[in-house]
């Protein structure tokens, strides 16, 4: 048995009804069908208006309603079939004129289902119209399920020859067998009662939207269809204002273990949404947002499937506070948050929540600091690529720019990324506030990641707690996957035994240029390889920063004072040397490692002997690897660095 319910928009006119008839006919080829229908769109409102009108206006409104149904009949039927169907509608219209005004709103479903039943029968399907007033009984305002289920089964089982049963939704009978209703939207509930009574294997709710959406698509254009959700989540959304489903519908289906499908009658091929016994999750994922207005206050229910993690709640609170949503009230209800905001701020709050929770695959919004060689190259690559990246602001300064950061933190969305392509020694002070504001960071600035360990740890902690990423692969080895390799080993308990890093492009250029030292240094300065003060290269400043980053990625809390540095002395340099930054396992050291940077003699068999120009090489030895991991490649180049920065943005 299949139960298919169609809403008012799905039977709004002859064209819509034709689609319904096609859907039902195809379903009937597979199994028996109970077709439950609402009144045509607008009919119930017209009937309610008529019930409170003067006699003259009432007659005019009810005549208008009859003509609407006649118009549908004239398009669906011809000849004798049209005459007979109009006669049936005329009889219902006469009953309506004689009915109590309190009962008017129940007649819309009688009109629509009569037309549907007649058309199905005339098309050759064994069809029977059944009376929901007789079959669904209410006592003291609630459905008597025991009585109703028994009556539904009796009627259906007594007509084994019938292929399609057509039943009006929304209406029922009270203790005195007088007509009553199940509440606006009650046709969904009617369908669930029929499905539960008959043990249906399918319960389909056909409407004019592609399933249950993450929120009202009329208010948020980027609302998405929820493919699958639990009974509990569906009930929460429906009971807090989501109009696609009537909340009481859930209980009968859940009790009977019947999945509810929400489908689009305008496009039957769409998969829609499935409400089912979705497995509970230890940590719930946001599933949708419902909104309803109560006077001057709007209630937003942010619903999850499963219990909400405290961090998720704090993330939402932070995001709304960032948008200056005033008079915000939070209530944690276990699997949903109830937020109360002034009506004037409801749409802003709804859009903010939806973007934060559901628009994860939208354009990445980039705020770029530094328009030097790497920053300019990055802008060029982005402009020439198909990457979904929106450059929201650029700070050309090579130092901290307060106005830039304030702008970013005021307007940034969850997909926002701060990209640091500067060489600033102080910009790192913004990293923690940026992360805490919910903004991701990609950095090529090694000065920012080689700060004292406590500051470095604070950045990493902020990234973890705010659930944002902090990526800086280009700070060592430019485009080489050095930090990723070390971090992977450390994370998998593969203890790092040693790291040898030839990472000073300046010194490697000088040592392999075959020019006298002084001339090679001058040339390196001319082509922009050196620090502004070349003596800093000879003192190992660049290599120090890189070794600090390498060590910390390996889990070693290395400080600059822990590194033994031997500056380069021109008169002691020999051709068989390389400037090597080393981290070696040493149990006698307080950190468990010994760190040094110095000129090191290497023989012909050493991998670094083959390095030329600005190439870098990192040699990693670990417990689980029988042979060292050698990573070698170009260590200098704005386009290479920019390409790696883009990779960090996109991955």
What report would you give on this structure?
With 651 residues, the chain is an alpha/beta fold. It has 4 domains: 2-208, Carbamate kinase, CATH 3.40.1160; 285-358, 2-Layer Sandwich (Alpha-Beta Plaits); 364-474, NAD(P)-binding Rossmann-like Domain (Rossmann fold, 3-Layer(aba) Sandwich); 482-634, 2-Layer Sandwich (Dihydrodipicolinate Reductase, domain 2). The protein is built from 23 helices and 27 strands. An 8-stranded mixed sheet has the order 3-6-2-1-9-11-12-10, sandwiched between helices. The radius of gyration is 36 Å and the shape is elongated. The relative contact order is 0.07. The model has no long low-confidence stretch (mean pLDDT 90).
Count of distinct structural domains = 4
Overall radius of gyration = 36 Å
Structural class call reads alpha/beta
Residues in helix, %? 25-40%
How are the strands of the biggest sheet laid out side by side?
A: 3-6-2-1-9-11-12-10
Shape: elongated
Level-1 CATH class name of the largest domain? Alpha Beta
Instruction: Give start-end ranges of low-pLDDT stretches.
Output: none
Which features does this protein show?
single chain, about 650 residues, alpha/beta, Carbamate kinase, 8-stranded mixed sheet, 6-stranded mixed sheet, 27 strands, elongated
Annotate the secondary structure layout.
Blueprint: E1 2-6, H1 14-28, E2 33-37, H2 43-51, H3 55-76, H4 79-98, H5 108-122, E3 127-129, H6 132-135, E4 138-139, E5 142-143, H7 145-157, E6 164-168, E7 171-173, E8 179-181, H8 186-198, E9 202-207, E10 228-230, H9 231-239, H10 250-256, E11 260-264, E12 273-276, E13 285-294, E14 297-305, H11 310-322, E15 329-332, E16 336-342, H12 346-358, E17 364-369, H13 373-384, E18 389-395, H14 402-411, E19 416-420, H15 431-436, E20 440-443, H16 446-449, H17 453-466, E21 470-471, H18 482-491, E22 496-502, H19 505-512, H20 517-526, H21 535-538, H22 541-553, E23 563-565, E24 577-585, E25 593-601, E26 615-622, E27 629-634, H23 638-650
Parallel strand pairs: 1-2, 1-9, 2-6, 3-6, 9-11, 10-12, 17-18, 17-19, 19-20, 20-21, 23-25
Antiparallel strand pairs: 4-5, 7-8, 11-12, 13-14, 14-16, 15-16, 22-24, 22-26, 24-25, 26-27
């Amino acid at each position: 048995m299949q139960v298919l319910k169609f809403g008012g928009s799905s039977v709004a006119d002859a064209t819509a009804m034709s689609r319904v008839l096609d859907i039902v006919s195809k379903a009937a080829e597979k199994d028996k069908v109970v077709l439950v229908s609402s009144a045509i769109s607008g009919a119930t409102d017209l009937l309610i208006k008529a019930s409170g009108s003067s006699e003259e206006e009432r007659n005019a409104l009810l005549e208008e309603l009859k003509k609407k149904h006649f118009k549908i009949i004239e398009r669906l039927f011809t000849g004798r079939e049209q005459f007979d169907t109009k006669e049936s509608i005329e009889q219902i219209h006469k009953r309506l004129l004689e009915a109590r005004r309190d009962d008017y709103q129940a007649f819309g479903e009688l009109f629509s289902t009569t037309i549907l039943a007649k058309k199905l029968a005339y098309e050759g399907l064994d069809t029977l119209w059944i009376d929901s007033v007789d079959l669904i009984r209410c006592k003291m305002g609630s459905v008597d399920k025991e009585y109703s289920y028994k009556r539904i089964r009796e009627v259906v089982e007594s007509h084994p020859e019938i292929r399609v049963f057509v039943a009006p939704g929304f209406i029922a009978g009270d203790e005195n067998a007088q007509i009553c209703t199940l509440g606006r939207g009650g046709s969904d509930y009617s369908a669930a009662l029929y499905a539960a009574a008959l043990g249906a294997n399918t319960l389909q709710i056909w409407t004019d939207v592609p399933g249950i959406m993450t929120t009202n698509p009329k208010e948020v254009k980027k609302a998405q269809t929820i493919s699958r959700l639990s009974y509990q989540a569906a009930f929460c959304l429906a009971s807090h204002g989501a109009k696609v489903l009537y909340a009481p519908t859930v209980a009968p289906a859940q009790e009977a273990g019947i999945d509810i499908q929400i489908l689009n009658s305008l496009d039957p091929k769409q998969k829609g949404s499935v409400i089912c016994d979705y497995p509970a999750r230890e940590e719930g994922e946001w599933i949708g947002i419902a909104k309803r207005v109560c006077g001057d206050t709007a209630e937003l229910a942010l619903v999850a499937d499963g219990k909400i993690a405290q961090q998720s709640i704090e993330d939402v609170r932070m995001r709304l506070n960032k948008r200056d949503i005033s008079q915000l009230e939070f209530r944690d209800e276990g699997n949903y948050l109830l937020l109360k905001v002034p009506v004037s701020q409801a749409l802003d709050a709804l859009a903010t929540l939806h973007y934060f929770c559901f628009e994860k695959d939208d354009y990445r919004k980039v705020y770029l600091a530094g328009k030097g060689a790497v920053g300019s190259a990055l802008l060029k690559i982005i402009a020439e690529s198909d990457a979904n990246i929106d450059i929201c602001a650029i700070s050309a300064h090579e130092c901290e720019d307060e106005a830039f950061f304030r702008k970013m933190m005021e307007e940034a969305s969850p997909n926002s990324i701060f990209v640091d392509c500067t060489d600033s020694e102080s910009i790192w002070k913004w990293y923690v506030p940026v992360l805490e504001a919910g903004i991701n960071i990609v950095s090529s600035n090694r000065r920012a990641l080689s700060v004292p360990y406590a500051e470095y740890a604070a950045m990493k902690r902020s990234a973890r707690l705010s659930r944002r990423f902090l990526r800086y692969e280009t700070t060592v080895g430019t485009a080489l996957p050095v930090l990723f390799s070390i971090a992977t080993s450390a994370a998998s308990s593969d203890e790092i035994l040693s790291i040898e890093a030839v990472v000073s492009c300046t010194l490697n250029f000088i040592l392999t240029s075959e020019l006298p030292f002084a001339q090679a240094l001058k040339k390196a300065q001319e082509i922009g390889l050196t620090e502004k003060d070349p003596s800093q290269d000879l003192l190992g400043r660049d290599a120090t920063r890189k070794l600090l980053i390498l060590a910390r990625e390996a889990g070693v809390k290395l400080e600059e004072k822990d590194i033994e540095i031997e500056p380069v002395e021109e008169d002691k340099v020999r051709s068989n040397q390389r400037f090597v930054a080393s981290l070696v396992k040493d149990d006698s050291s307080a950190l468990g490692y010994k760190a040094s940077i110095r000129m090191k003699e290497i023989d012909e068999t050493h991998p670094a002997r083959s390095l030329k120009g600005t190439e870098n090489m990192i040699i990693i030895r670990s417990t689980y690897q029988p042979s060292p991991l050698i990573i070698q490649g170009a260590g200098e180049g704005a386009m290479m660095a920019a390409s790696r920065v883009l990779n960090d943005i996109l991955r």
